[in-house]
Amino acid sequence: MLPPQAEKKMQAWIRSRHLISSGNFFILETVEYPTVERFTECVDSLGGTLITVQPIDKIWIGDHRKVILYQAKASLHTPHHDLKQYWFKYGGLRTRFDQRR
Length: 101
Hints:
Oligomer: single chain
Strand content: 25-35%
């Protein structure tokens, strides 16, 4: 994946509240493992490092379906990366899944 595409994808996750910034790290929460794989590609493309991927909870989707919530933590090596500024402007302190836990 090319860096401009990776940055746009990460910006979309910031706007949708799947991706937050915490200190020097970016944390993605999702119920779809292929999204974690795309996040890994984006981080690699932007020169960062994936630190951990772990299942953190099981949450209900609708009334009858329980799914695994994955959390991926990554570091982009530049503290003043453009994504950090984008997160300050459009992001939040909590992911969309925080209220479900």
